[in-house]
């Protein structure tokens, strides 16, 4: 039995959009006003969405519950698996004593919290986003900052806000690829358009982050570092996205920002060291100094993680791993049971249990490979893994519930209702176009999913008002990044990483206004691109097929895996060779 989506159940698209927005309004109220724990707010939001979908939109009860279950499964495996892997690796470095060395090494580069935030939250976080995506960068960088002694709320909040700059190109350019597949606009054209919007945010973010932490006076005191960090990142993000490809902007820009900032810190230091008020004052004791071998050994789990994660993100490698270990299935009764308002079957993707090619598996593999380097065995690894699951138990409930809510909203037609209301704004649509992307990321927690959901509508709406569709399709991705910091699943990752589970409302209230400030900036830039700065729009030719198929082969995938294995062996060999020297030197 089929059911057809009803886009305007109240016979008016704007009234219907208000009805559809009730669960979103509720979760804002629950987290900001009621200060409810995240998992409770998420569960109640999912239940409220079920209530609106069934009697409000006429969705059959079985399809509503199947949609919720489909989303929960996606949240538990695809999203949570990455976060579990990231936190597992972090816990291994703690238990193996390596994070203490990393902490002291970072302090030797700079004990200043402002500069540590730039290096780790902004630059290193962008690099990890480019390699892995999902929740990995926030989970890893927030945990690292907390381990260095940051206030947990600021550690999580700063990392979430810093994650704005790289999200549109995250996970080896996947969001751009999906936007191209859905809209039919070439990948490179979308990459260029996004790459002419986000650098404006990227160049300002370091200043913004430090200002949030320390105020204007303390921000101006490290202005050279801020300029080097932001300019190096935005320049390389612009160059890579416009002239190379959409797969590498975050990796190259993040790495460039790290190198440029560390080079500056060799020749320049702030006059005073800034720390949080509740921290003890810096002492004048000589810092512990480590050999090169000890430093490389301490960082080796993250070096190996980077190598493995980048390899796992390549299509040929995914192809090989999926051919060995992947299970796909549809939930019984869900496939082809929901029709769009035009009568075509709604695209319901099968639940894909890609237990080998998932990015979380790559991080888990990196952790297991790193065990001998840290002097740890499988027993210690199991202890770290169960500790990780214990730390994340409430966060997993939050993520499963939020994705269940997202799937209900999408399958019932509620998301299309809100989108159609925004698309009906006529000449004002370029201003609201990023809002649509923002809405998609808030609902799904993923810029990739938001692009899959709304880029076709962005394309059609732009054509209707004679605006180049690449502007609005790119705006979907650019606007979406502004919601990443307040998406409930991102909030769940942030609080889990810093040990603040149950304090989701505090983190949400910390980030929410910054999300709207950045969204407003993207909205203004999109309007200017649509009606004023036409020269900023790239020239392109539409593809013949809206869905582009990549050609992969086992040979290429195996070759990349061999190269990856060789890189890991070289890393391990370097660690062992360097650590033949005396391990610790004190002044």
Report what the structure shows:
- It contains 24 helices and six strands.
- By secondary structure, the chain is an all-alpha fold.
- The strands form three sheets. The protein has a two-stranded parallel ribbon with strand order 1-4. Strands 2-6 form a two-stranded antiparallel ribbon. A two-stranded antiparallel ribbon has the order 3-5.
- Helix 12 runs antiparallel to helix 13 (249-267).
- The longest helix has 35 residues, at 61-95.
- The radius of gyration is 23 Å and the shape is globular.
Q: What's this, in brief?
A:
By secondary structure, this protein is mainly α. It contains 24 helices and six strands. The radius of gyration is 23 Å and the shape is globular.
**Structural class by SSE content:** mainly alpha
Helix/strand order, N-terminal first: EHHHHHHHHHHHHHEHHEEEHHHHHHHHHE
The coarse silhouette is globular
Distance between the amino and carboxyl termini: 77 Å
The low-pLDDT segments are 545-551, 583-587
Cα Rg = 23 Å
Say how many strands there are: 6
User: What is the strand arrangement across the widest sheet?
Assistant: 1-4
Q: What's the helical proportion of residues? A: over 70%
Number of helices, where a helix is a run of at least 4 consecutive DSSP H or I residues:
24
Largest sheet: 2 strands, parallel
What's the rounded overall pLDDT mean? 86
Q: Report strand %.
A: under 5%
How many domain modules?
Answer: 1
């Amino acid at each position: 039995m089929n059911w057809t989506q009803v886009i305007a159940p109240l016979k008016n698209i704007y009234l219907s959009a208000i009805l559809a927005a009730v669960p979103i309004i509720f979760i804002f109220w629950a987290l900001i006003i009621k200060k409810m724990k995240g998992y409770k707010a998420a569960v109640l939001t999912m239940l409220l969405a079920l209530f609106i979908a069934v009697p409000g939109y006429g969705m059959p009860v079985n399809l509503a519950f199947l949609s919720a279950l489909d989303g929960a499964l996606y949240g538990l495996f695809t999203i949570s698996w990455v976060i579990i892997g990231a936190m597992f690796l972090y816990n291994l470095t703690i238990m193996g004593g390596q994070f203490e060395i990393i902490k002291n090494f970072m302090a030797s580069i700079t004990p200043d919290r402002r500069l540590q935030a730039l290096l780790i939250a902004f630059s290193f976080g962008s690099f990890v986003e480019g390699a892995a995506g999902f929740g990995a960068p926030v989970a890893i960088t927030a945990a690292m900052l907390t381990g260095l002694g940051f206030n947990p709320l600021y550690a999580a909040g700063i990392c979430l806000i810093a994650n704005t700059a790289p999200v549109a190109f995250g996970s080896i350019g996947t969001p751009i690829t999906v936007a191209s597949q859905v809209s039919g606009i070439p990948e490179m054209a979308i990459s260029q358009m996004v790459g002419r919007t986000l650098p404006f945010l990227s160049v300002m973010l370091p200043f913004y982050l430090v200002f949030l932490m320390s105020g204007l006076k303390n921000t101006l005191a490290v202005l050279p570092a801020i300029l080097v960090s932001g300019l190096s990142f935005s320049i390389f993000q612009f160059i890579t996205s416009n002239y190379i490809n959409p797969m590498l902007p975050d990796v190259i820009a993040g790495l460039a920002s790290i190198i440029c900032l560390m080079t500056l810190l060799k020749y320049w230091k702030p006059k005073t060291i800034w720390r949080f008020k509740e921290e003890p004052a810096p002492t004048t004791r000589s810092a512990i100094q480590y050999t090169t071998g000890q430093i490389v050994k301490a960082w080796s789990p993250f070096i190996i993680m980077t190598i493995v994660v980048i390899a796992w993100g390549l299509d040929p490698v995914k192809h090989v791993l999926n051919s060995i270990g992947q299970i796909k299935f549809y939930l019984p009764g869900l496939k082809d049971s929901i029709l769009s308002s035009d009568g075509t079957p709604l695209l319901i993707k099968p639940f894909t249990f890609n237990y080998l090619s998932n990015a979380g598996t790559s991080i888990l593999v990196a952790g297991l490979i790193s065990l001998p380097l840290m002097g740890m065995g499988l027993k210690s690894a199991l202890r770290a893994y169960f500790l990780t699951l214990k730390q994340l138990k409430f966060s997993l409930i939050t993520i499963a519930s939020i994705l269940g809510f997202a799937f209900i909203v999408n399958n019932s037609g509620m998301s299309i209702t809100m989108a159609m209301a925004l698309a009906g704004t006529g000449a004002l649509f370029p201003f609201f176009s990023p809002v649509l992307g923002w809405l998609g990321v808030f609902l799904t927690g993923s810029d990739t999913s938001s692009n899959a959901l709304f880029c076709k509508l962005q394309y059609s709406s732009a054509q209707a008002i004679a605006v180049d569709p690449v502007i609005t399709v790119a705006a979907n991705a650019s606007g979406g990044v502004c919601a990443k910091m307040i998406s409930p699943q991102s909030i769940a990752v942030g609080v889990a990483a810093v040990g603040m589970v149950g304090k989701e409302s505090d983190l949400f209230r910390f980030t929410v206004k910054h999300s709207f400030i950045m969204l407003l900036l993207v909205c203004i830039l999109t309007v200017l691109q649509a009606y004023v700065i036409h020269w900023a729009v790239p020239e392109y030719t539409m593809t013949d097929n809206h869905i582009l198929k990549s050609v992969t082969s086992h040979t290429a995938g195996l070759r990349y895996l061999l190269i990856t294995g060789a890189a890991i062996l070289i890393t391990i060999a370097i660690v062992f060779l360097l650590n033949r020297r005396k391990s610790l030197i004190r002044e």
